[in-house]
Amino acid sequence: MTARAVTEATFEQEVLNNDKAVLVDFWAEWCGPCRAVSPILDQIASEHADKLDIVKLNVDENPQLAMKYQITAIPAFKVFEKGEVVKTVIGAKPKPALEADLADYIA
Amino acid sequence: MRDIIIIGSGPAGFTAAIYAARAELKPLLIASSVEIGGELMNTTEVENFPGFPEGIMGPDLMGKLQAQAERFGTEVVYDDVVSLDIDGPVKRVTLGNGETHEASALIYATGSAYRKLGLPEEELLSGHGLSWCATCDGFFFRQKTIAVVGGGDSAMEEATFLTRFADKVYVIHRRDSLKASKIMQQRAIDNEKIEFVWNSEVAAIVGETAVTGVTLRDTVTGEERLLELDGLFVAIGNDPRTHLVHGKLELTAEGTIAVDGRTSKTSLPGVFAAGDVIDPHYRQAITAAGSGTVAALDAEHYLAALGNENAAEALLENEFVAVD
C-alpha cells in the first residue's frame, strides 16, 4: 500500500477534518532520505491502518503548506489530530525508531 | 550458510559486491534501511569519478553501482545491522527485523557519519534551521541568510549549492585558509553570494524554537560576537561508523578500523573492511570503490584457502597475487 498524496486543495478535508490521527509526510523528489524512508512509512501505514492515516505532501508542489507548518528540513513528519499538530518527527529513521517516535498513535 | 556478507551500500560496499558476485559467491549486501547508497545520495553533481566526463549525479552513480552488483547476483537487503558475532569461523549478522544471516567471510564497509558540532542545543534545533544536508533542506532557505560551517570540499560544495536558494551564504571556518581543493575553493570565492568568516568557530547556536543566529568565537583573540542567521549547515567532516565493532576489531588512533598494510584484513580472520571506515585521509568515492575491490579479492583469497572453488577460480581470472 502506498500512502496517498494530499495537496493544498485536499489538505483541509483529508488532514484537518480527518476523524483519525493523520501523519503527513512532507517530502520532495530531490530529497534522497525522503525516498529512502518512503517504503518504511508505507509499511507502517498498512500495519496500522486502523489507527493512523498516512499521507504524503510534496513540498515542491505545495509550498504554501510547507511554509505554514514551518518546514525547514525534510523528510518531516507531522501527526495531526482534530486539525492540530500533536507530534513532529524530522529526518529519515529506521522503522523501529520511527515506530518508537509514533508509539502514541500506533500502539 | 553463505560465502560472504557485505555491510554497507556506498561505493566500497557495492564495488566489493560486483567483484564477489562475478566470482559467483552470491553476496548478501546489507544496505541499511534509510541510508541506502551512502553519502553520495546527498550530493548533487559528481565531477571526479572516472568514466563520467560530463559528470554524474550522486544518486544516479549509486543506482548504477547497485544495478551492476545486482546484475551478477548480489542480493540486497534494506535493513540495519543491530549486532555482529564475528569472532569465530561463522560470521553472524543480526538485522533490525530480527533475522540472523551467516557467512564464512564478512566485508565491513559502513562508511562514516556526519560530525556534529558537539553543542548542547544541537539536538533541539536540528531540523529547525540546523541541517547536515544542503540538498535536502536548502530549498527552504530561499532569499534567506544562512551559513555553512567547515573548510573542506563538502563545505565548499554545500555553500555553492546553497546560493541557488539563499541570498547570502557565510562560510564559517576556524582557520584563515581552506582545506578544500583549489577548484572547489575558487568556485566558492568567485561566488558573489558567499562571504568567508575566517578564524571563527561556532561557540553556540542561538534560537529558542528555530535558529536565529550563532555566537562566533574568534579562534585567535577569543572574542565572541553574534551573527544573525536563518539557517546553519554543518560540514565539518565525518567520523567512521565503527560502533558495531567496538571491542571486536582493532581500531587506529584516528578511529578507523585497523587493516594490515594495503590489504583489507582486520584483526579478525575472515573479516575485511573497506571504504571510509578504514580511511581517515582520502575518502573519495573512487578510493572507496578501489578499497571495496581489495576487500572482495582478500575475501576471495580467504574463501579459496577454505576450499571455495568459485573464489579460487575468480582469483585466477583477476590475476590476484596474495599479499602474505
Automatic annotation (TrEMBL), chain A:
InterPro entries: Thioredoxin (IPR005746), Thioredoxin-like_sf (IPR036249), Thioredoxin_CS (IPR017937), Thioredoxin_domain (IPR013766). One of its GO terms (biological process) is cell redox homeostasis. The record marks G32, P33 as: Contributes to redox potential value. Keywords: Disulfide bond, Electron transport, Redox-active center, Transport. The active site is at C31, C34. Disulfide bonds join C31-C34. Transmembrane segments: none annotated. This is Thioredoxin. It comes from Agromyces terreus.
UniProtKB/TrEMBL annotation, chain B:
The keyword Disulfide bond applies. GO terms for biological process: removal of superoxide radicals. It comes from the Bacteria. It is an enzyme of class 1 (oxidoreductase). Its cofactor is FAD. InterPro entries: FAD/NAD-bd_sf, FAD/NAD-binding_dom, Ferredoxin-NADP_redctase_2, Pyr_nucl-diS_OxRdtase_2_AS, Thioredox_Rdtase. The keyword Cytoplasm does not apply. It catalyses: [thioredoxin]-dithiol + NADP(+) = [thioredoxin]-disulfide + NADPH + H(+). Its EC number is 1.8.1.9. GO terms for cellular component: cytoplasm. Binds 1 FAD per subunit. It holds the Pfam family Pyr_redox_2. GO terms for molecular function: thioredoxin-disulfide reductase (NADPH) activity. Keywords: Disulfide bond, FAD, Flavoprotein, NADP, Oxidoreductase, Redox-active center. Residues 3-292 form the FAD/NAD(P)-binding domain. Homodimer. Belongs to the class-II pyridine nucleotide-disulfide oxidoreductase family. This is Thioredoxin reductase.
